[in-house]
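Key result, reporting period 2: structure in, sequence out.
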């Protein structure tokens, strides 16, 4: 997953990656991860500010919500200059429930609708939530707050099956000596994961983390013009 630079040929249209997500913290976290994979696009990853609400939507409602996101993605790309195209779109949400058949069904339903409307869109449905991804990297957390420590019972686990990762970070990881974890810490956590070289060494598993990087590789292989 390490970054591999790939210069754009002269004369090619400018390309951007667009990120949509539940809030700014989640979008910034994805931006940090994607810039590690595509350093040549640093500064060309743009965001849609509106919150995403897809995983409970069905039928016509889902179709309309996906179309609205795609329209906004095209709009923010156009603001980057004439002819700018969306190379890839990443749409993030937290599933807010543990991994299992329900998760697979929801991801499939929404991802299929995104792909139906745009072959360049990827659905990043984090299970249980993005905090579960952070628990894959216990060695990174003390670099954000020195007193933070992941208890042994949460190490080398399938973090997508831990019911409330956010509470684990706020209660068990933060403990009583350090500052309590808040959602605004998420970008700093992922920045440390990248900068300290932990990205390729998760201590545990999470199906949505694996799927995210599979989609990133697919984007680089099939969507960018090289």
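The corresponding designed sequence is given below.
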């Amino acid at each position: 997953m390490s970054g591999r630079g790939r210069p754009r040929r002269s004369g090619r249209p400018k390309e951007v990656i667009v990120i949509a997500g539940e809030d700014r913290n989640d979008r910034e976290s994805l931006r940090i991860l994607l810039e590690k994979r595509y350093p040549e696009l640093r500064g060309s990853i743009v965001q849609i500010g509106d919150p995403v609400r897809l995983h409970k939507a069905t039928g016509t409602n889902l179709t309309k919500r996906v179309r609205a996101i795609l329209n906004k993605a095209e709009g923010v790309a156009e603001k980057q200059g004439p002819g700018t195209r969306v190379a890839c779109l990443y749409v993030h949400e937290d599933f807010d429930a543990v991994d299992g058949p329900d998760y697979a069904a929801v991801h499939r339903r929404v991802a299929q609708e995104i792909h139906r409307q745009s072959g360049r869109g990827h659905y990043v449905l984090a299970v249980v939530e993005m905090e579960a991804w952070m628990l894959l990297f216990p060695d990174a957390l003390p670099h954000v707050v020195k007193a933070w420590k992941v208890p042994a019972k949460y190490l080398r686990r399938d973090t997508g099956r831990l019911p409330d990762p956010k509470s684990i970070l706020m209660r068990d990881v933060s403990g009583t000596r350090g500052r309590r974890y808040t959602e605004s810490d998420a970008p700093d956590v992922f920045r440390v994961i990248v900068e300290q070289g932990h990205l390729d060494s998760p201590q545990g598993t999470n199906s949505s983390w694996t799927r995210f990087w599979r989609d990133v590789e697919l984007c680089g292989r099939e969507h960018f013009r090289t």
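The two ends are 19 Å apart (CA to CA). Helices lie at 24-37, 59-78, 101-117, 130-134, 165-173, 186-195, 207-222. This case is discussed further under Risks and Mitigation.
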